Amino acid sequence: MDSRWGGARSVSRGMLPLLALHAASEYYRLPWKPPVTAGLLAVNTLVYLRPAFLDSILPSIDEVLFNPHLILKHKDLKRFFLSPFYHLGESHLVYNMMSLLWKGIQLETSMGSTEFASMVATLLAMSQGITLLLAKSLYLFFDYERAYYSEYAAGFSGVLFAMKVVLNSQSENYTNVHGLIVPSRHAAWAELILIQMFVPGVSFLGHLGGILAGILYLRLKRLYAGVDPLTVIIRGVTGALSWPLRLIKQIIPLRRRRISGRGTVGGNGNYTGRTMSYVWRCQACTYDNPGWLNVCEMCGTSRGDNGWPSRQVIHRSPDLSAEELRRRRIERFG
């Protein structure tokens, strides 16, 4: 969360193509693509770029900057909930999105998309709420109005600090925080201190609120072992929205089972097309081979009379040991 604000910003897009390239390369190498992380990246970037089809819908940045005084005085929930998705400059956006990409992929892959989405929503509300409470407390008890109670801030970094706490909570390893080697569990605290020392204009309370939100979230998760209500709601909504897609997926495989071509259904199994869906199972090693092979790809046994297409389970022949299967495999493929 950045507290620097000086009115209108100039949009320079020199770093955004690098962000897009990095995100695309990361997702390309993943066998499963985390959708919630991708959605958060897209939302933050689109809010910053403000394309024509969103410009009339999105409030301006000066209407949503996080300001404890204005939030409490006018009950302005826009500033409370929307300020994390607004960024004050291109470098601010790119740095936060790079961090979100790395943390989001790890957390969503391990937790699942539904629980991850619930966690992000919870951490956002908790980090904003704790930051608001800290600012109000400092104003009431120490008269820190100008420093914290009236400052303007925006950015996703409060949520990112909370995610860092959750991600590193069970780690026993060490990590590098801007050149400083610290235990991973304390990385968020080290980054908070280093950023305050060397990066001017950042929101101390915003980052501190994120760390405290992550700690509180973990404590609540330990106390409540069941599925949280927000996860249940998100799961129900996504289930309802994805019902038509599931129905289509159930219908399509039935159509794909219809065989067309030159093969003889129920005949002698001598299928010649490589596109046929039939396989034949080797009696020696039970390996399923494509219909266009006449020799078992696993053990080298000839197809012989065992060329019937089959998908039923046949027990492994006791005549061939695992070592014999390995030897035949080596002989066949050199």
From TrEMBL:
PROSITE patterns: ZF_RANBP2_1 (PS01358). The chain crosses the membrane at residues 116-135, 188-218. SUPFAM superfamilies: Ran binding protein zinc finger-like, Rhomboid-like. One of its GO terms (cellular component) is membrane. GO terms for molecular function: serine-type endopeptidase activity; zinc ion binding. One of its GO terms (biological process) is proteolysis. It is found in: Membrane. It comes from the Eukaryota. Pfam families: Rhomboid, Zn_ribbon_RanBP. Gene3D superfamilies: Rhomboid-like (1.20.1540.10), Zn-finger domain of Sec23/24 (2.30.30.380). InterPro entries: Peptidase_S54_rhomboid_dom, Rhomboid-like_sf, Znf_RanBP2, Znf_RanBP2_sf. Residues 280-299 form the RanBP2-type domain. It is a multi-pass membrane protein. Keywords: Hydrolase, Membrane, Metal-binding, Protease, Transmembrane, Transmembrane helix, Zinc, Zinc-finger. Its main location: membrane. PANTHER family: RHOMBOID PROTEIN 2, RHOMBOID-RELATED PROTEIN. Belongs to the peptidase S54 family. This is RanBP2-type domain-containing protein.
